[in-house]
Design brief:
3-stranded antiparallel beta sheet, single chain, 6-stranded antiparallel beta sheet, about 160 residues, mainly beta
Length: about 160
Amino acid sequence: MPISIRRVVTGHDASGQAVVAIDEIAKNVISTRPGQSSTVIWSHAETPVDNEEALDGGLRDVKQCAGDGAIFRVVQYDPGVAPRNHRTETVDYAAVLSGEIDMRLDDGKEVHLRAGDVLVQRGTIHDWINRGAVPCVIAFVLIAARPVEKGGASLRAVG
């Protein structure tokens, strides 16, 4: 079953009073591979953010966010999700909301994550593998970053 996320977005009315502008089950659910579904909760194309922008950030073409923007997305990985190595040109903050999942790097090393764990993905090639019996749901915030240069500086490897 595809992901179902309620999103509540605030804003202001004509007099400047705070209001709930959107309260709905997110409609923009997509899938980039079998066993995966995601929805963009909000995005913006640049920082600082214009909080008076009329556009629904959940419906923005996220390609517009590549230069100086950010994306808040929630993803569901079902058991047996199809593999897909990929790299984002962002720094990704990931918080596992439910279930368990393995994050595999391009060298084959894996890290097992459970509900409550967080991951900071810094432009590395990776894949998500759900070997469990229940879906895993992860909230991601992707923030534009400079592309990783081959042989560039990195934090000291742990373990």
